[in-house]
Write a structure and sequence with these properties.
The termini are far apart. The longest helix is centred in the middle third of the chain and has 33 residues. The protein is mostly helical and 80 residues long. It has two helices and no strands. The mean pLDDT is 82. Helices cover 70% and strands 0% of the residues. The protein folds into two domains: 37 residues; 33 residues. It is elongated, with a radius of gyration of 26 Å.
């Protein structure tokens, strides 16, 4: 007796491959959406690239931490 070869739709590897391809497309769509949002944000801030925006964010966070030290009187010399 000859073993029956499953059809494409019945093959579990085909179904898993289709699922992986679908997930890959969804990830790429999310990446494209986030990349577009980042470009809009960078342009709105008048910057030339995302790295400048990240530097600006890091500087803002540094200022918040310095202010927090002044408000709470926390001595964190040597921590930086």
């Amino acid at each position: 007796s000859v073993a029956q070869t499953p059809t494409t739709d019945e093959n579990p590897l085909f179904a898993q491959t289709q699922q992986l391809l679908r997930l890959g497309r969804e990830i790429l769509e999310c990446h494209d959406r986030v990349d577009g949002d980042l470009r809009e944000c960078v342009a709105a801030a008048g910057l030339s690239n995302p790295r400048d925006l990240w530097k600006q964010d890091a500087e803002g966070m540094r200022r918040v931490l310095v202010c927090e030290r002044g408000v709470w009187g926390e001595d964190r010399r040597g921590v930086d």
